[in-house]
Design goal:
With 151 residues, this protein is an alpha/beta fold. 51% of the residues lie in helices and 14% in strands. It has a 4-stranded parallel β-sheet, sandwiched between helices.
């Protein structure tokens, strides 16, 4: 039975590191929106275009993920899954395709996230974007921590 791995957490939490581990351990298709978006941007510093591309790229990746799951291939999604509604939607859709779902939440303090992001901002790896402290704090205020019934 294929598995959908939902990687949940804020920027800097270690989502990509965990996703790569799961990809390798389970021969799963790993889908990371930032890695796709970076290839579409003419200017990586263009935040408006980055924001505009996020929803359509995530929709395309989800369509691809659904096809893979239907074919029996496990999928790792690095969408962050900041809201319970979003996590519930993807769980229901995957289960309707006959897939199992595993939520992996990376809980990291705001100070630790910022320390990691500041280091990453100084030497950006491919497929990542700079994050400002103000952005992180705003996003953290939107984030809904998963409840026990979501695992």
């Amino acid at each position: 039975m294929p598995t959908l791995y939902l990687i949940c957490g804020l920027p800097g939490a270690g989502k990509t590191t965990l996703a790569r581990k799961l990809e390798s351990e389970h021969a799963a298709l790993r889908l990371c929106p930032d890695e796709w978006i970076v290839n579409l941007l003419a200017d990586p510093a263009d935040k408006a275009e980055l924001d505009r591309l996020r929803d359509p790229v995530e929709k395309l990746l989800w369509d691809l993920a659904k096809c893979a799951l239907a074919l029996g291939v496990s999928v790792v999604l690095e969408f962050g899954f900041w809201s319970k509604a979003e996590r519930s939607f993807f769980r229901a859709e995957a289960e309707a395709l006959g897939a199992r779902v595993e939520l992996h939440y990376l809980k990291v303090s705001l100070d630790e996230l910022w320390a990691r992001l500041a280091a990453r901002n100084a030497d950006l790896p491919a497929g990542t974007f700079p994050v400002k402290r103000e952005e992180l704090e705003l996003w953290a205020s939107w984030f809904e921590e998963p409840m026990e019934d979501e695992y």
